[in-house]
Fold:
Amino acid sequence: MSIALDIILVALAIILMIVGIIGCFLPILPGPPITFAGFLSAFFVSISKYLH
Structure:
């Protein structure tokens, strides 16, 4: 994958994880599924293949 796509996925993962943590305290947002989506998007960053 390209560097630009990696940057977009990392930014998306950070935003989703922050919103997911906020969602754990606000009843209107589903916190755990949003946080899981953040972890899932972070998994597809090309540098993550070196972390396994």
Remarks:
- The radius of gyration is 12 Å.
- Residues 3-23 form the longest helix (21 residues).
- The CA atoms of residues 43 and 49 lie 8 Å apart.
